[in-house]
Amino acid sequence: MRSYDHKKIEQKWQKDWTKKKLYKTADSVKGKENFQLLVEFPYPSGNLHVGHWYAFAEPDILARHLRMTGKNVMYPIGFDAFGLPAENAAIKNGLNPKKWTFGNIAYMKKQIASMGTSFDWSREVITADPAYYQWTQWLFLQFFKKGLAYKKETAVNWCPKDKTVLANEQVVNGKCERCGTEVEQRNMLQWNLKITDYADRLVDDLAPLDWPEQIKESQRNWIGRSEGAEIDFFLDFGDEKVNARTDASGKRAHIKIFTTRADTLFGATYLVLSPEHLWVKLALGHRTVLKNNEEVQKYVRVAGKKTELERQENKEKTGVKLEGVEAINPATGEKIPLFVADYVLAHYGTGAIMAVPAHDERDYEFATKFKLPIRDVVVEQTTPRVPDGVFRKIGIAIVENDKNEVLLQSITHEDRVEYGLPGGGIDEGETEEEGVIREVIEETGYTNFTNIRRIGTVESNFYNTVRKINRQALATCYALRLKNETKKELQLTELEKKVKIENFWVSKQKALELISGSQSNSGEDQPLFMRYLGDKTDPYTGAGILIHSAEFDGLNSEKARQKITEKFGTKKTTYKMRDWVVSRQRFWGVPIPIIHCPKCGDVAVPDKDLPVKLPDLKDYLPTGDGKSPLAKVKSFVKVKCPQCKGKAEREIDTFDTFVDSSWYFQRYSDPKNTKKFADAKKLQNWLPVDLYSGGAEHTTVHLLYSRFWHKAMFDLGLVKDAEPYTRRMNRSLIMGPDGQKMSKSRGNVIDPDEVVRNLGADTVRMYLAFIGPYNEVASYPWNPNGVVGVRRFLERVWRLHERLSAVQHPLVERAIHVCAKKLTEDLPQMKFNTAIAAMMLFLNEAEAKGITKGQYLVLLRLLAPFAPHITDELWHILGNKKSVHLEAWPKYDPKKVVSEEATIVVQINGKVRAQVQVASNSSEALVRAEAEKTVEKWLEGKSVRKVIFVPNRLINFVV
RNA sequence: GCCGGAGUGGCGGAAUGGUUUACGCGAACGACUCAAAAUCGUUUGGGAGCAAUCCCGUGUGGGUUCAAGUCCCACCUCCGGCACCA
Q1: pLDDT at residue number A724
Q2: Which has the minimum average pLDDT: A35-44, A465-474, A570-579, A675-684?
Q3: Alpha helices in A327-431 (DSSP H)
Q4: Which of A894, A909, A950, A956 is nearest to A931 (CA)?
Q5: Distance (Å, rounded) from C-alpha A485 to C-alpha A397?
Q6: How far is the CA of A209 from the C1' of B32 (A)?
Q7: Which of A150, A411, A488, A797 is deepest in the core (most CB within 10 A)?
Q8: Nearest by Cα to A299 from A271, A325, A276
């Protein structure tokens, strides 16, 4: 018997496929639909790990399957070859980054070949190849000419010790990765792309895409669109003449703020400007505007020096009041103070906010610290208003003791018992807090309290059964702790005496149950008690109904936002996302094709001079002034201006590598073109990408940038679709056997090359497919025994080829059709794990009952996408001349899939009591007759009230 | 804190509202063998019982339904992303 020698077989077929160019993809094939299956191209780090296998070998299953179903599938690959590690290798070990990178690529290509993937290497794209980056430069220049690229002072990470700019990846916890020095922010002129111009389209165009909701949601989050309003607050300098001064547009001095909560305008009790705000700068320059000019100046300076680390570590609010100026709340007409504080960010909105401490956590914290007024203007409404509700302010109390219990009241009247919290109306002239305490003393007798906290206010509308009126109550709740048991006599009103009031202590859990279950005549107890339990005390940041807001009282937040914006401001949309900084002060990247001319300014390198090639360097060390080593290459830097032919200098920054990877999938359609980035017709053949499989870590940045890039190209008429990827899926993570992330320090790294040597590529491919669903994001531990299990399966398949039977077993025949059906359904959804389970199930059946050659050949074709080597070998052993991978996908016969018998579950009241075998599609009457025999003892003496019958599944007797 | 996603045997996981735990791994026992490995076979959620059989079981607590892992409400835990974004 021939044994399964994976080494020999895998090498043999990999050679054969390459020789026969089996996976070379034609631009188009008559009668076949094109399908581009894209995987994120790897960075040439120099070694292939299990993650690469998972990323490349599993989608390969789908690629092979789709080819068998008659699609012209392009499954391309390339290398994202620019970037930091090559530069680090250069600096650390004096290696030539180019040699290092291309050496790694050669090695990794061999490793990738060992997977048996069907990549079309003739379409390989390498971003560090001038033939590719010529077009990266050209595309950037199209954007530049259209005004999408601009230069701007932007902060970069600067290491004061190494005297170099750091990439974000080189900053760990705010410190330099290499020397541990705290990183500073420095401003440098940098190239930006106007991605913010596309923010709305990037959000809106997500909706129709066939992407997991999760990915769409994180993109929306990242873009962070919020609809709000801009409102002007006029300034008052305490001098009518000064106040009346206007600017060029005829407007009085004012601060423009952005808010998403215009409904809380009446509660704005102060303004906050960011330290970098222009008005602050101007006022400081004037020196006489602010009475505490020096103090403010100092604060602004300190805030500017704060590093990211300090801002993250110290979140306690700081700020300084601007003396000598006040703002006027346009809604209330009230004069309110201004502050400068670094909790307001300069780059978001207008860099200034109206502070509403009653309804914003940060403002609340600040106002509490600086003792600023807090005014409620929105309350939660627990029940809708009724027409003739009589308004009443009430206070309720949550009284706690040391045993973690709270005081509850039972009220008995008209044969009903209700449970609730103590409390009552707040009288004229007393504060809410005083009113609550007075009520508690009267109703419970306890007199001494400590730790008095405000929980919040709600509006509750209800019918007061005692007074027989509709009530519109504004209920404020306080929590108080019992200081001691000192008690006074109860002082109940006549009404309160009529209903029997009893006080008792219960656990918080029990209290919630009683309050929630009670036929309480008002709705305020439960929501307030929930806030108390969840520690969700003030401020109340949710939506609600307006109070203390003049004519807007009674409106809900949504409506009020509209109305107040209309009257006092203008609608405005802002985004969290900022423009894309594409400059990097690095050597190993695509040179930015711009020439700085003292006369003409920034000039695009003419097309005929592209690519601007990266020069070969002898010395890769940074210059120490923040510039890339390119600055030292005079022959590179000194050029003539393409416009005026005068002396000029080349831009020495290079592109962010996300630029390189923003369009690589387009180049796959026409990778060798020297005249264009790609031929329009060839692009049309393959775009948009039908399925893009990648890692969850690229959900936001790469995916968003490349979508933007594509849209910008679309607007220039360079591509025909506004979106690049029809379908996107994120892959899971493979962990070490211990369930932890694989890492050298943990010693749990699985070397795929070694497993391939021992068990074969087919086994590794299939094991990774079997480990869990590929279409969902999760993390799966590598189980060494599990790999062996898959190897066992392949061995069993192998052995079967010498035991083929001449007689066909009907159940095996059905099983092969069932198996084909399951795979046909599961593969397009990338549910590889259940597909493999189906083949295992079939194998169990076939081994037990015998398999014919015809059935075996079907199995080989079903298995071929998963285990391409062993199946091609067996396919040839059985006498076929052409590769199994050129075969068509097996069709199943739906008629043969159905079983002749059905197992019917017999239930009594929904509980399984027996099962019966009947012919398929048996009638209810027949099944019922059969079923009743099996469950006689359950039906004895009882009458069947109802029978539920589900054909071929179950019958349920309800007695 | 906010936004996503997920909680099912000893483990990875499966399950159109219809027998929970397919398939695989592990474990136990048996066959083959001088023996072991490999291979093959049987068993394998928990509890009670000699047994037939019964009870309980998909993170927790409620609900809808003849029937809930699946639908609804509240909560807990874990993972991922964002994080002073007004």
Answers
A1: 95
A2: A465-474
A3: 361-369
A4: A956
A5: 17
A6: 59
A7: A797
A8: A276
| CA–C1' gap, A700 and B12, in angstroms | 29
DSSP 8-state code for residue A797:
H
pLDDT at A135 over 90: yes
Pairing mode, strands A226-236 and A320-328:
antiparallel
A946 touches strand B (CB under 7 A): yes
Which nucleotide lies closest to A700 by the C1' atom and the CA atom? B81
Nearest to A827 by CA among A890, A919, A759: A890
Which bases of chain B are under 7 A from a protein CB atom? 3-5, 11-16, 18-20, 22-26, 38-41, 54-55, 66-68, 75, 79-82, 84-86
User: Would the Cβ of A716 be found within 7 angstroms of any atom in strand B?
Assistant: no
Asked whether strand B has any atom less than 7 Å from the CB of A351, the reply is yes
Instruction: Say which amino acid occupies A223.
Output: I
Q: Is the CB of A836 under 7 A from strand B?
A: yes
CB of A224 lies under 7 Å from some atom of strand B: yes
- Partnered with residue A72 across adjacent β-strands are A34
Å from A745 (CA) to B7 (C1')? 30
d(CA A297, CA A212): 50
**pLDDT tens readout for residues A365-415:** 999 999 999 999 998 887 778 778 888 899 999 888 877 778 888 877 766
State both tokens at A652: 């020495």
Distance separating alpha carbons of residues A322 and A275, to the nearest angstrom: 12
Separation of A948 CA and B19 C1' (Å): 16
Between A52 and A168, the higher pLDDT residue: A52
Q: How many CB atoms lie within 10 A of CB A930?
A: 17
Query: With 60 as the cut, is the pLDDT of residue A520 above it?
Result: no
User: Which of A88-102, A132-146, A524-538, A847-861 is predicted least confidently?
Assistant: A524-538
Point out the least confidently predicted range of A286-295, A675-684, A834-843.
Answer: A286-295
Give the side-chain half-sphere CA count within 13 A for A230.
12
Asked whether strand B has any atom less than 7 Å from the CB of A825, the reply is no
Q: Give the amino acid at A147.
A: G
Instruction: Output the distance from A818 CA to B14 C1' rounded to whole Å.
Output: 17
- Tokens 């054969």 sit on residue: A16
- State how far the Cα of A305 lies from the Cα of A187, in Å rounded to an integer: 12
Residue A222's nearest nucleotide, by CA–C1', is B82
Q: Which pTM was predicted?
A: 0.89
Protein CA at A557 to nucleotide C1' at B74, angstroms: 25
Return the H-helix or E-strand segment holding A437: helix A432-444
Question: Residue A771, CB, less than 7 Å from strand B?
Answer: yes
pLDDT tens-place string over residues A603-640: 999 999 989 999 987 777 777 777 778 888 889 999 99
Q: Return d(Cα A902, Cα A953) in angstroms, integer.
A: 7
C1’ B63 / CA A248, Å: 66
Query: Does the pLDDT of residue A492 top 80, yes or no?
Result: no
Q: Round to whole Å and give the CA distance between A620 and A868.
A: 45
Q: What's the CA–C1' distance between A259 and B58, in Å?
A: 46
Q: Above 70 in pLDDT, residue A522?
A: no
Q: Is the CB of A907 under 7 A from strand B?
A: yes
Name, of A180-184, A450-454, A487-491, A823-827, the range with top average pLDDT.
A823-827
Q: Which of residues 516-575 of A touch strand B (CB under 7 A)?
A: 534, 574
